[in-house]
Input
Amino acid sequence: MQATDYDIPGDFRHWDGDAAEDHIGPFFYRPVAGGIETAFRPRPHNCNSSGAVHGGVLMTFIDYTLCVAAVAGTDERVVTVSCNSEFIAAARPGALLIGRGEVIRRTGSLVFTRGTIEADGETVLTASAVVKRIRR
Amino acid sequence: MQATDYDIPGDFRHWDGDAAEDHIGPFFYRPVAGGIETAFRPRPHNCNSSGAVHGGVLMTFIDYTLCVAAVAGTDERVVTVSCNSEFIAAARPGALLIGRGEVIRRTGSLVFTRGTIEADGETVLTASAVVKRIRR
Amino acid sequence: MQATDYDIPGDFRHWDGDAAEDHIGPFFYRPVAGGIETAFRPRPHNCNSSGAVHGGVLMTFIDYTLCVAAVAGTDERVVTVSCNSEFIAAARPGALLIGRGEVIRRTGSLVFTRGTIEADGETVLTASAVVKRIRR
Amino acid sequence: MQATDYDIPGDFRHWDGDAAEDHIGPFFYRPVAGGIETAFRPRPHNCNSSGAVHGGVLMTFIDYTLCVAAVAGTDERVVTVSCNSEFIAAARPGALLIGRGEVIRRTGSLVFTRGTIEADGETVLTASAVVKRIRR
Output
């Protein structure tokens, strides 16, 4: 999948193999200083009965964002233990949503993360997640 | 949409008009003593790269469950203010997911809710949400 | 410390050795079917400027409750990873606060817990916590 | 109460009238660019059986921090609706704890806040809270 097909800058990359994320998204990511940035262009089928992007869709996007941040470019696998979201403002379909994920601390078994989603520069969601590192 | 088309008992009803919930779900609900029960039969396109139902899909389903519980059969409109989820166990596609939502307290402006998702009788997610009542 | 000195039923027991819990509480516990019950009789020095029991005091009491539930009568040690609380109603000093803690799931490294605090039979707080088991 | 009596820089101020905060703290605050900074010097009676500052004490301090941030120097009154905390690392008695609170958005009825606690420059807690504005 190509970011530019969704009107997302071409340096955002796709992570193949997650059917749910492609079905709801697709979502894209790029490394930035201090963490990760993700991108998503929601469409009408992502919206609730008020015409705003559904809270569940936003939570899926931030879960993706925080897991990508936790993995941090390695091939480590992680699972989300808990995810808390606050819905700050409504996001509209067609807007470019940018997620930002930050690792607060990585312990031997857990990663503490925090993030935001912005729509056209306005914060629409804040979240934190505790992520478990899966040892192989 | 008919619950029975998704191998869900026929007394579960569908709430029309939410494109995202139909795209990710569909989800169904029925009133029960003390709250609401919801149902969802996840499919492969709802799954992550490990073949388990994606956390974002589960959060979408519990958000639906808690909002249906908050609305409680009225035509009131609500928006989610915050939603906290713990991922207790993996859910597999094909399993019958049953959500349960409970209203802890309804104030003039907010509804405090709590819920669970079970897959074949095992708890896979616990959540709480604060929901805002929209006055018309 | 004796529960009866704080007008708490005498079958509630004290857990010695936690200075902060004694300074803010004291708190007491007893096993019940399906989990743990805790008790606390807040006093004026536990209250905020509105004369209600301070939210931080309630969070301390629920953290105690959920850790006692997680430990479940063993000598295992645990630390709280995350704790989410919703403030349902105000609690007044002098009321008998009863905490209830429930273990949703115990994995090899984590315990998922959930609980409530009631004041004179009314729910004043709901909470969930993820607790880490400390291996010795 | 004077910050300097607790080995806290003298430009931190005290907010009088909250018995619980003085009993657990005292806590101090000062305005900074983009929000609020708070200070607390924990003592042995604030610690758990492991000798670390008790999680409930940290949650009380962050609740204070986020409410001070929400009030933002006005005489508005607020109550906490929900408060989510992640315990990132242990804090030791005697360390200077610095809280930081940030208002993400202020609506007509709610304030969305987020914050951290650092001990000697290391993050020990992250939190978010939804706070309700009390109309007089």
